Amino acid sequence: MSVQRTRRLHMIGNAHIDPVWLWQWPEGYQEVRATFRSAIDRMDEYPEFVFTCNSVLYLAWVEESDPELFERIRERVAEGRWEVIGGWWVEPDCNLPHGESFVRQALYGQRWLQEKLGIVATAGGNVDSFGHAATLPQLLAKAGLESYVFLRPEPRELELPGQYFWWESADGSRVLAYRIPNQYTTPGTDLAALVAPIAELTEERPELMMFYGVGNHGGGPTRANLDSIRRLDGEDGLPALECSSLREFFERVREEDGIPTWRDELQHHAVGCYSAHSGVKQWNRRAESLLLRAEKWAAVADAAARLRLGERDQRGPGVAVHGGDRDRRLADPLVRVLILLPPSEGKTAPRRGKPLDLDALSSPSLAPRRSRSPGPPSRGRSRACSWPTRWATSSAGRTPSTAPSGTAPATAAATEKA
């Protein structure tokens, strides 16, 4: 047997699609549907064919535009012949976005896959990004992604310790990463001219991986691609060719000895892109900041709305048993939010790390009380504060040291007057 026949080349059928590039998104929307239908048709003709799909957004588009096609895709996913990688909503740039943006990519993407297909992705992939931040292994690992595939930077731009390696973040989190040796797309013709250079790679590893399929507006793997894989698999001097998946490849190489480790970012490619059209980058960062700010206030507003639960039935008037009143405070989301809020300038709050004594908050001296005056209290009259979680208290029921802004300190004398 030829030495090359002891090596295996995993053929990854895919179709990289830019939803917006030299066209606008409605055209990308239609191209996704056409490409996925072509991939499903090839599966009917070639039983060995496995298709790999990235970007959860594309699946959501197909579910919306062609439910019948989506059901066929769901069946192939269950069979293991339609692999979803990435686990992110789209393939983003991996340098510019805020860290929370990456987290949400995984949160929304993996949640959608779980709800719609009953799976989560285990292999990450951003084949078209121009670089990859050093923090990504931590974010990937925490999202359930155990491996990662990329193309750039290319070998002429960054020398790496191997075709595949452990990529490790500063906190020790790591994923098994693989740099694609060719491109992530190919012409729709015979693949012999592309397979031969990969077979000549000097690295002596028994398993390698190659992506094939026509990308943007190409429809993915073609009949000519798949016919050539069948033919080349039997040729001497070439590795064994197998229609495969990222899951299959990484499972085979994960237990190999001597896989090197890389503890750094993966940079740089096309650096000029990061200074071009600066307005777009500025708008993106501004949108990220506004979304984070809006989400925080939306959480407070939602908690405040649910706080009304404590105002109904017997708990609001204060006639429930002592334990029920305590349960109410524990359950109120706004109370929890206020406990976690950092103290404002010049005010005191429960010390960090010290548990809040909720029973102490039930003592009569700390209970919110209304002034007997029918109208608002006069400027010179103190009034018991209704924000007990912002006071520095102890289990002994110490008098609050500071009240919220605009409210005078609630002393014992003022409490009795009230």
Describe the structure.
The structure is a single chain. This protein has helices spanning 25-45, 56-65, 67-79, 99-117, 136-142, 192-199, 223-232, 246-253, 278-306, 322-331, 333-340, 412-417; strands spanning 8-13, 51-53, 82-84, 123-125, 147-150, 164-168, 174-179, 207-212, 240-243, 261-262. With 418 residues, it is an alpha/beta fold. The chain starts with 7 loop residues before the first strand and ends with a helix. The relative contact order is 0.11.
Distance between the termini: 96 Å
Q: Which residues sit in consecutive blocks of at least 5 with pLDDT less than 50?
A: 343-356, 361-371, 377-418
Task: Let me know the average pLDDT.
Answer: 81
Shape: globular
Strand order of the largest sheet: 4-5-7-6-10
Order of helices and strands: EHEHHEHEHEEEHEHEHEHHHH
Q: What is the CA-atom radius of gyration, in angstroms?
A: 30 Å
Keywords:
12 helices, 10% strand, 418 residues, alpha/beta
Q: What's this entry about, in short?
A:
This protein is an alpha/beta fold and 418 residues long. It has twelve helices and ten strands.
Layout of secondary structure:
Elements lengths: L7 E6 L11 H21 L5 E3 L2 H10 L1 H13 L2 E3 L14 H19 L5 E3 L10 H7 L4 E4 L13 E5 L5 E6 L12 H8 L7 E6 L10 H10 L7 E4 L2 H8 L7 E2 L15 H29 L15 H10 L1 H8 L71 H6 L1
Parallel strand pairs: 1-8, 1-9, 2-3, 4-5, 5-7, 6-10
Antiparallel strand pairs: 6-7
